[in-house]
Design brief:
CATH architecture of the largest domain in chain A: 3-Layer(aba) Sandwich
Number of domains of chain A: 2
Number of strands of chain A: 18
Structural class of chain A: alpha/beta
Shape of chain A: globular
Strand content of chain A: 25-35%
Radius of gyration of chain A: 24 Å
Largest sheet of chain A: 8 strands, mixed
Oligomer: homodimer
CATH class of the largest domain in chain A: Alpha Beta
C-alpha cells in the first residue's frame, strides 16, 4: 500500500466546486489503495482578503499578528475539504500546522520547519483516514503561530512527506509537468518524465518557476520523490529524482533550456587591478538591493581589469548611476552598458560526464549568427548572454540541436 | 492597579472602523492604569459566512470540522485588534483558545471549559501588554479545536476573569445595562445599577436575553463581578452581584419584570390519577423536542386529575396532536388549549424575606381586571399566565405597583 502526500494550491481549492472535485479524486485514489495525506493552501483570494484587512488597520502590521491572521486561510480549507471527504464516506481529519505538530523557528512570515511530529498522521492513516494538513503554517517553541512565507505549502508537503517517509509527494499546479523549455517559445517543447533535483533547481532559478526553490532543496535533502502534475488534467506529470553515484552516465546530455528576458548588462572598464576590486564595485550595488546575476571579470592589458555583470532591466538606470559615481574613486576608464540583452541557459546533469556540450552550444549559436556577449558556467549549466532580439531564435535552435524535441 | 477582562461581541468589532474604536478605548483605559485582557467574538457576519460555506459542502458537516472552520472567525478578530493596539503603541498579544490554553471537554460545538492555563496572560500583563483572547473556542485534551456554542464568548470572558482573578469582567453589548423591564413596553423602565446573579438568571431565562445564561452561572460559581455595558455609549451599565448571607434583608422587594410573548397552553383533563401520569403525558412531548415551560397538575374530583402546561406558540399544533393521540390510552376526558396567552414574571431576591409580594401582584392584576390563568412560583420569582391582550397592561401596572419607576 503506497503512502502518498498530495498538495493542492489555492487555485485548486478556490471554490466549493473545486474542493468537491479534489475530494472526488482523493476518494478514488484512496479506494485504489493509496494512503493519503493532503496538504492544502488557502482558497485563492483569501490570503489577499486578509492582508487587505490588516493593511486597513495598520500600514506596518506586526509579523506575529499577520501570521495569526493569514493562517486562518488554510484552516478554512482543511475544514471544508475534510467535510467534503467525510460526506463521501471517509472519516477524514484536518490538522492545522500547530496541531500536526509542524515545529518551526520563530521567524514570523518566513519561518523554517525544524521538525514534524507525525504521531497523529500515522495513527489516522492506520485507521483508514485521509489526513488533511494546513500548508504554509507551523508553530514555534513558545506556541506562537508561524507561517513559512508565500508558496510555503509546497515546503509543508515535502516536509510531511519526509517525516512520514512517503513513497511520493505530488504537487498539483497549473502546468502538467516540467518542459524542456517554454512551449510558448518552442511549440515542440516536450514534457520531461523525470528531471533531477539539481536540474530542477537550475531551471527554477532561471525562470521555470513551477515549484518553490526551497521545497525542491528540502526534497533533495531528504530524497523525497517529488512529482509535479496538473490540478485540472489527468497525466503523470514530471518526477523529480535524485542522482545516485554513477547514474549520470545514462542521463541525457541536457534536460532543458531556460531563459530570462528583461536583463541588462553593465561594464566598468580599465580599473587598476588589485585585490578587492569586485567587492568595491559590487558592494554598493548589493547595498542598493539590486540583484546581480552573471558576473565576469577579465584582466586586460597593463594591470587593468574590466568587470561586467548583469542585473534585471528595471535596475539598469540606478545601477548605471552608481557605477558612474565610482569611476573617479576607482581610477577606472569608463562605464558601458546595454539594456537590451537576454540570458539563455542549457541545463543537464549529463554535461558533467560529456565533453562537447559547450561546444555544441557555441557552434549552434555561431551557425545561426547569434553573437555571444557573455558566458557563465556551472557544473550542470551553461548560460550565455545574447542580444534580446536573438533570444527566441537561440532557444529554438538549441532545442533542436540538443534533440529535445525528439 | 485593577485587573479587568473586557468582552466585545461581533457587532462591536464588525468593521475595521469599529475595531479601531475599540482599540482607542482600550488604550485610554490602559493609560488610566487598568491591566486589560480583551475577549472578542468573530466580526459580525463572519461566522454565518463560514457556516454557509460548510453547508455548501455538506448538509450535515461533522462537528469537529465545523469547529476548525468557525474558530477562524475569532482568530481573525484577535489578530486585527492586536494590530490596532500595536499601532497605538501597546505591544499587545493575541491568543487563540488553544494557545491560552483554554482546555475544554471534547463535545464539539458546545464544549464546556475545564480549566484555563493563565501563565501567558499573567506574564504578558506583567510586561504591560494588553492581552487579546479569542472567545468562543478552546482545545480538548487531544489537541482538537472546540467551540463553546453560540454566545460562548461571554463564557470565555467570565472563565478568563475567574482564572486570573480579575477585579471585574465587563461585557459590552447593544444595551446599556439591565432594565427593570423592557423600555419598549414601559417607557419608565429604569436601568438597574446592580442586580444579583440569581435575579439575572431568572430574568435571562424569562426573555431578558442580554447575557448567556451559562456565562452568568459561571460568573456566579466563581463570584466574578460581572458588568453589562453598552459598546456604543458611555455609562456604568449594570453590575451583577453575588448575594452574601443576610444581605437580602436590604435588597429591594423585586428587581424586574420579565415577560414572554407567543406562548400557548394545553390542558388534558380527567385523566385517571395514578403515579406516572405527568411522565406519560410529557415524555412524548419532550421526545418531540418541544420545550415545556410552566407545568401545573391538579387533582380534580373522583380520582381524576388535570394537567396543564405551556409551550412556545410555534409548537402548539404538533403538541395538540400529540395530546389528542393520548386521550384513549390514558382514559382521559378531553383536551383543551389556548394559543393566545403570555407570561409575566416578577423577579427579586427580596421576596424571600418579605411576605405579601405575591399578594401585591395578584391584587394589582385583579384591580385591573386581568384574569390569572396559571400561577407558577420559585424562590425568587412569581410567574403568571394571562391572556396575551392583557400582557402590556399587566407589565405596566406591576412596574408601577412595585415602584420600579421611582
Amino acid at each position: 500500500m503506497s503512502l502518498i502526500v498530495e498538495k493542492f494550491g489555492g487555485t485548486s481549492v478556490g471554490t466549493v466546486e473545486r474542493i468537491n472535485a479534489v475530494a472526488d479524486k482523493l476518494i478514488k485514489k484512496h479506494e485504489a489503495g493509496e494512503k493519503l495525506v493532503v496538504v492544502v493552501s488557502a482558497m485563492s483570494g483569501e490570503t489577499n482578503r486578509l492582508i487587505t484587512l490588516a493593511n486597513e488597520i495598520s500600514d506596518a502590521p506586526p509579523a506575529r499578528e499577520m501570521d495569526v491572521l493569514v493562517s486562518t486561510g488554510e484552516q478554512v480549507t482543511i475544514a471544508l475539504l475534510s467535510m467534503a471527504l467525510q460526506k463521501r464516506g471517509n472519516d477524514a481529519r484536518s490538522y492545522t500546522g500547530g496541531q500536526v505538530t509542524i515545529r518551526t523557528d520563530n521567524v514570523h512570515s518566513k519561518a523554517r520547519i525544524l521538525d514534524i511530529d507525525d504521531d497523529k498522521i500515522i495513527s489516522d492513516l492506520d485507521q483508514g483516514r485521509i489526513v488533511v494538513v494546513a500548508g504554509f503554517q507551523g508553530i514555534d517553541n513558545s506556541g506562537n503561530i508561524t507561517t513559512l512565507g508565500r508558496g510555503g505549502s509546497d515546503t509543508t508537503a515535502v516536509a510531511v512527506a519526509a517525516a512520514i517517509k512517503a513513497d511520493e509527494c505530488r504537487i498539483y499546479t497549473d502546468v502538467d509537468g516540467i518542459y524542456t523549455t517554454d512551449p510558448r517559445v518552442v511549440p515542440e517543447a516536450k514534457r520531461l518524465d523525470t528531471i533531477t533535483a539539481e536540474e530542477m533547481l537550475e531551471l527554477a532559478s532561471l525562470g521555470a518557476k513551477v515549484l518553490q526553490t526551497r521545497s525542491v532543496e528540502f526534497a533533495g535533502k531528504y530524497k523525497v520523490p517529488l512529482r509535479v502534475l496538473s490540478s485540472f488534467e489527468d497525466g503523470v506529470g514530471t518526477l523529480i529524482t535524485y542522482e545516485e553515484e554513477g547514474s549520470s552516465m545514462e542521463a541525457p546530455l541536457i534536460s532543458g533550456i531556460a531563459f530570462q528576458r528583461d536583463e541588462a548588462k553593465l561594464t566598468i572598464r580599465g580599473i587598476p587591478d588589485h585585490p578587492g576590486v569586485a567587492h568595491q564595485v559590487l558592494g554598493p550595488i548589493s547595498d542598493a538591493h539590486i540583484n546581480v546575476d552573471v558576473i565576469i571579470q577579465n584582466a586586460s592589458a597593463k594591470g587593468l581589469t574590466d568587470l561586467t555583470f548583469t542585473v534585471p532591466r528595471a535596475d539598469y538606470q540606478p545601477c548605471m548611476e552608481l557605477l558612474h559615481g565610482m569611476v573617479d574613486t576607482l581610477g577606472a576608464k569608463d562605464v558601458k552598458g546595454d539594456d537590451k540583452i537576454a540570458k539563455v541557459s542549457i541545463v543537464g546533469v549529463g554535461m558533467r560526464s560529456h565533453t562537447g556540450v559547450a561546444n555544441t552550444m557555441f557552434k549552434t549559436l555561431a551557425d545561426n549568427d547569434i553573437n555571444i556577449q557573455m558566458i557563465s558556467t556551472s557544473e550542470i549549466k551553461i548560460s550565455v548572454i545574447v542580444d534580446e532580439s536573438k533570444l527566441e531564435q537561440a532557444v529554438k535552435e538549441l532545442h533542436k540541436a540538443f534533440e529535445l524535441d525528439l
